[in-house]
Write a structure and sequence with these properties.
The complex is a heterodimer of chains A (218) and B (289). Chain A is of the alpha+beta class and 218 residues long. Chain A has helices at 62-67, 82-90, 93-101, 123-132, 146-151, 188-198, and strands spanning 7-12, 19-24, 51-54, 59-61, 71-76, 106-112, 139-141, 155-156, 159-162, 168-172, 212-213. In chain A, strand 9 and strand 10 (168-172) form a beta hairpin. The N and C termini of chain A lie far apart (48 Å). Chain B is mainly β and 289 residues long. Chain B has helices at 25-31, 178-185, 231-234, and strands at residues 12-13, 40-47, 50-51, 56-65, 70-72, 84-88, 94-95, 104-108, 112-118, 121-128, 136-149, 153-166, 189-190, 196-201, 204-209, 217-221, 236-237, 240-243, 250-251, 254-260, 266-272, 275-276. In chain B, strands 1, 3, 6, 11 and 12 form a 5-stranded mixed beta sheet that branches. In chain B, strands 13-21-20-16-17 form a 5-stranded mixed beta sheet. A 4-stranded antiparallel beta sheet of chain B has the order 2-4-10-7. Chain B starts with 11 loop residues before the first strand and ends in a 13-residue tail after the last strand. The interface between A and B is large, with 62 and 62 residues.
Amino acid sequence: MNNARRVLSVLVLTLAPVLAFAATPAAKDAAPAPAAATAGVKPGDVAPDFTLKDLDGVEHTLSKYLADGKIVVIEWFNPDCPFIVKHHKLNRTMNDTYATLTHKGMVWLAVNSGAPGKQGAGLERNRKAYAEYEMPFPLLLDESGSVGRAYGAKTTPHMFVIGKDGKVAYTGAIDNDNSPTVAGKHNYVISALRAVMDGRDVPEPETKPYGCSVKYAN
Amino acid sequence: MATIAACSRTPGEGPAARADGSVGEAGAAEQAGQPAAPLVVMSATAEPAAVAPGSTLTLLWTFRPAPGWHLYGNVRNDSGFAPRQRLKLPAGWEAGPLQWPAPARHVAAGDILDHVYEGEFVLLQDVRVASDAAPGALPLRAHWEWLACREACVPGQDSLSVTVNVVPGARSTGAPTGRLAAARARLPQPLPAGLVQVAMDGQTARITRTDGGAGNLVFVPAVDCGELADVLREGVGTTLSLRLVPEDGHVGPLRGLLIVDGTETGAYALDVPAVPWTGSQIVTTPTGG
């Protein structure tokens, strides 16, 4: 029977982690097992819509950009996280990535989900950083953290690329070097954007993001 | 003396260390006109004191984070990174892997799951001395970098040198010092017989205690553990049901540390091999009794 449950019982027998397999009848109940993590979005999921204000109070709505045929990059941001400093100041990874592909119909939104009072949060601190880092794209505040939690944003930076179809095409790191100073040689977001723009499958739709934790409200 | 702690140091903290007034002790001390206390103090020693060519010594890398600050374990974490080492050894010397004590679970708002060290911890590393090593004192140098976080995160680095004394014919003096013995005792141990049962039930690994103990189990996934559906919620309990996510025709391996609470908390290495997954072993909820 294809649907028969088979239980492999793994007994720990000796001092070393030597494991023996033995078939035993299924006895316990079990809930259906979803194959994906419970929080956040994965490649292929519909990107949750949101409206957030930038530092000038202007609203930005994901679905409006998608309706205009844009590809949207979202970068989770905290001006005082060393990994944001790495990519916005020590290196110009984010500005350069934006400059490379923005003329092809891409919108970049930096989102700060830090709660009031936490490191890197607040209008004043972000205005200062926005000027210092010469950011060429909007910086949106998500002080309640609701957008960050909907996406499952864990780190700053944590990158998401959303295709014109409104689905997540890429989630993960900006590049392949998680040191706090050295930029990686492979920029995953550029690879993902080029694939999306060319109508190809993204070669690595999911990587492990690295950085500081997002400073959500407790 | 053949073991010398931490000389020729060049400690430093990263560029963001002063960008944020909330970094705590360091910033407060600086404002008071005193040198900032480092957030992490490192030291290094080697055992035994004298080593013969071709024999093995153990390096003890000790980290002392400031109160309230943590460093990251070398396991699967949502943020941060584990301390990284660049060790320079003379030709013919060989270093073994770093041996890490079990880190503690650390959950932050937003379902961010990390495994960290708060307070002093020691990494061990065996080094085999070249069989043709010349007699005499020799410094071994290592550069370290790490990320220390409380709420804010501050990268740090240090360069340390440990002098070892190569003495032909030197013999190990037997029992290790208290520091080395204590550090070894904190390393994860092989799973003892009769402590737990691990059963793969479809996609789910069920871990139950078989020793009669009632304390919690904590599963800490290794970096190369198979993908887990929700280790944040499923990784702690008196019994564990860990859902694995099928990848490329298999689930698992279930690889990491199992921390067992009881009269004495212990950490054990767990490594359940990957199981083929065809998608036909569907776990269903039984209907009726």
